[in-house]
Design a protein that fits this description.
The chain is mainly β and about 70 residues long. It contains one helix and five strands.
């Protein structure tokens, strides 16, 4: 079974725009409970960033890739 990676541009509360953020699975699938508030993601250069649900203002889905 192929993995699906979702590529997003994400706007944070501090005004920073993270572009080309790669997440395995849809963003909303990772924040399905109150206890889940941090999500490690990969930026366009391959660097890992940990996002908090409380810092995400807007996420724009750019495309879905299968690997």
């Amino acid at each position: 079974m192929k993995k699906k990676f979702y590529i997003y541009n994400i706007l944070l509360t501090n005004g920073e725009m993270l572009e080309g953020i790669r997440i395995e699975g849809a963003l909303e699938d990772h924040f399905i409970g109150v206890a889940v508030s941090f999500l490690p993601v990969e930026d366009a250069s391959g660097k890992t960033i940990v996002l908090s649900i409380f810092h995400i203002v807007h996420a724009e889905l750019l495309r879905i890739e299968e690997a």
